[in-house]
Amino acid sequence: MEAIERSEPADEFPVEHLSIHGQRFGYRRGGEGPVLLLLHGIAGSSRTWVPAMHLLQHDFTVLAPDFLGHGESDKPLGDYSLGNHASSMRDFLQLLGIERATVVGQSFGGGVAMQFAYQFPEMCERLVLVDAGGLGREVNWVLRLAALPAAEYVMPVLFPTFVRDWGDSVARFLGDRGIRNARAAETWRSYTSLTEAENRQAFVRTLRAVIEPGGQSVSAIDRLYLAAHTPTLIVWGDHDTMIPVAHAYKAHEAIPNSRLEIMEGVGHFPQVEDPIRFVEVLTDFLRTTEPTTFTPEELRDLLRQGTHEDAPNTNGVSERDVTRLGPIRPGETAARCED
Questions:
Q1: Is 79 a catalytic residue?
Q2: pTM of the predicted model, to two decimals?
Q3: Closest CA to 263 of 332, 319, 325
């Protein structure tokens, strides 16, 4: 079942490969210590975590897999649902001999992280949601258009190979002259990944598992009360144009005892746009919380509370408070929301 190989190193965290149920998964790893499982967004890859991994590897074992259909993982026909991705992450950890981890998910990876915590609470020490999907209907119009029927037949025109080659040349030209924009670079990497036919096919299958033309079709809000015993950090860029920052407040309200950090001047990719500040927020959370010891009995007790509406809310923030409160500044926590 398991086969591991190592590719030629392209950076400090070269991509390794592991076989799960006959499918080849790429992943990056480094460091030693408590395990952080870093999950990327749609049309992204493990590469998005490299800037943060450089900073985290001194104190933690960092693992950044490529989801099936992304990066250097296989791109088969099949199930691209959140549940299947979460199950693959469980198998990934078990094949590496890892029993528990703090799960950090950005964008689509945040949806997988929540699904993982729901399906396998005994393996999730903490939960970190970074500009996460699955917390409300609203999402950027570009993704809603890509979910339209027959969109895959238009994509070859929108994502031609010659544009990728031209854009890469421009990026190298600007980079050689010290002109860099991390947000634009990460967006460009996502765009260029879709110039390959098999990537586009996997992208469409993944996208339609969570998004429809009207918006996000999957929501974790009604089950977030189950994370009451799991230390949870919510990080969001206040300039996110993909998923609105209001979703951060909604998640903070729904998860008892969660911690909320809004990063000013940052968009959809905090771990790339400002990795130093992102890692400071993350490591402070890791050092000031204890891994959960969630038991089956505690899960049963939470489920017996019934629906999400019956679950306790200890944060005291309602949706009507979002405008009044405004962005929470770096370094502030839920304490402000209790004022």
A1: no
A2: 0.80
A3: 332
